[in-house]
Design goal:
single chain, 463 residues, alpha+beta, three-stranded antiparallel β-sheet, 49% helix, globular, binds protoporphyrin IX containing FE, Cytochrome_P450_Monoox, Cyt_P450_E_grp-I
């Protein structure tokens, strides 16, 4: 980064730098994001950190991030963790460089897969998968066992994206251990994160071999899935679009190699972060029974006793949605995104950047900037997202789904799925945490509450 920032010396860095290694004091290989948050608190809204001989600039001040959201001067940068996923996801939507033609092609072909009509068609499948979760949780409650929240949310969201997008059933709820697809995925995400903590990839030779095997497993799974579909026919889901839809303007289609990249991208991006978002929301609901009671009252009022709420009834859960937003504010499960300068420019009128210079936006800190969120920004309070409060805040202060042309294509999908599931769970269970549980956050590029178990009880009848 240093070449691109002519006045880098004006950007603060940690005081004690170690020759050759850089700012590694107190750093923990397993929690790079939480280390960065710690530095952010010490050093302020823009700072730099050196790892070996590379220098990285981090930004989180609300005015700086608002400027970085200007699409005429800045764009997504594929760097660090995201770039490390290129061997798995290649020029798939998430990891494509802006200039790669397959980005626009796939974006235009797949965007209709996230329209209102498409979402309404996914809704019954989402409901069906949620039913498998509640069957499982009913059994656990009856047996007096606590449930493994992140584990079960991952089963739910994987089955949801694979059913709705690809007509595929991983059978997650019928297994005691995670599906091998999940283990391979966790392996590649963790490896991509670890690559940032060593000066040369060669230092991770053994891990690299395991990573090769994980990628080979992911490719095989996806190739089987595609082969099965070519032999049968789908119902217009994402996979059908990938295989059959020509670009409306150019008539071009995705190549078989690109389809493989997109399927992996959607299976991973389509469930890992939603699983974390649901898990954090359940953590906060268990911590705040009064908020859970208010949400439950809304579900009862809006849904009545319909066993199967319809598509339209999900968006009406305004308060449940605010709980999700507030969870994504404190723990945005894709916790950073990178922006690069499209031309020589001056960031927020203060920091000159040359064309191609880039910086990492730390979303969890942006979401805690007192300038935007007030002095009590650390407190969980869904009312921050009531419409009046939202209107009173400046633009670009809430960015869990990234920004601009490369923002999340699956945002509505995730929000619909998560709101539906929280509504169903609130109606059925009261959540009781282990008394000793303290929130710890695990990182594998994404964030997840570590080892969160909840006891399920019957909710009191409101009315
Ligand atoms: C991009 C977050 C759910 C598919 C992104 C980005 C963020 C994000 C921050 C931008 C990354 C960057 O700028 O480098 C989230 C969160 C989710 C979620 C927090 C859940 C709560 C989903 C779902 C899908 C999905 C459900 C698919 C069904 C994608 C794809 C991209 C993306 C394909 C790349 C878009 C592009 O560059 O054109 N997501 N996401 N995401 N997300 Fe999501």
């Amino acid at each position: 980064a240093e070449q691109g920032w002519p006045e880098l010396h004006r950007i603060p860095h940690p005081p004690r730098r170690i020759p050759l290694l850089g700012d590694v004091l107190g750093a923990n290989r397993a929690t790079p994001l939480q280390d960065s948050l710690r530095f952010a608190r010490q050093l302020g809204p823009i700072y730099r950190r050196k790892a070996f001989n590379r220098e990285f600039v981090f930004v989180w001040g609300a005015d700086l991030v608002a400027d970085l959201a200007d699409e005429s001067r800045f764009a997504k940068h594929v760097g660090l963790g995201v770039a490390n996923l290129r061997p798995v996801a290649g020029d798939g939507l998430f990891t494509a460089y802006n200039h790669e033609p397959n980005w626009q092609l796939a974006h235009d072909v797949l965007a209709p897969g996230f329209s209102r009509e498409a979402m309404a068609a996914y809704h019954p499948m989402m409901l069906d998968v949620a039913g498998r979760l509640t069957d499982h949780w009913d059994r656990e409650r009856a047996a007096g066992r606590a449930v493994d929240v992140p584990g079960d949310m991952t089963k739910l969201t994987l089955e949801t994206i694979s059913r709705t997008g690809f007509g595929h059933d991983f059978g997650s709820f019928e297994r005691d251990r995670p599906h091998p697809f999940i283990s391979a995925m966790v392996g590649t995400l963790t490896y991509a994160q670890r690559l940032n903590s060593v000066p040369f990839p060669a230092l991770l030779r053994r891990a690299a071999q395991r990573n090769e095997a994980d990628i080979a497993y992911l490719n095989r799974t996806v190739d089987d899935l595609v082969r099965a579909r070519r032999a049968a026919s789908g119902d217009g889901d994402l996979l059908d679009r990938m295989l059959e839809t020509a670009h409306p303007g150019t008539g071009e289609r995705l190549s078989p190699e690109n389809v493989r990249r997109q399927v992996i991208t959607f299976l991973v991006a389509g469930h890992e972060t939603t699983s974390g978002a649901l898990s954090f929301a359940l953590y906060y609901l268990a911590r705040h029974p009064e908020i859970a009671a208010r949400a439950r009252a809304e579900v009862d009022r809006v849904w009545g006793d319909t066993a199967a709420p319809g598509y339209e009834q999900v968006a009406k859960l305004r308060y449940v949605r605010r709980i999700l937003d507030e969870s994504l504010r404190l723990w945005p499960t894709a916790p950073a995104f990178a922006r690069e300068a499209l031309e020589d420019t001056v960031l927020a009128g203060r920091h000159p950047m040359l064309r191609g210079a880039w910086t990492l936006v730390l979303t969890p800190m942006l979401h805690r900037d007192p300038a935007a969120w007030g002095a009590d920004a650390e407190r969980f309070d869904p009312d921050r997202f009531d419409p009046k409060a939202v209107r009173s805040r400046p633009a670009h202060t809430f960015k869990p789904f990234g920004t601009g042309a490369r923002a999340c294509i699956g945002r509505q999908f995730a929000l619909h799925e998560a709101t539906l599931v929280l509504g169903l769970l609130l109606r059925r269970y009261a959540f009781v945490p282990d008394p000793g549980y303290r929130l710890r956050v695990t990182e594998r590029l994404t964030l997840m509450p570590d080892a969160l178990r909840l006891h399920l009880e019957r909710p009191e009848v409101t009315a």
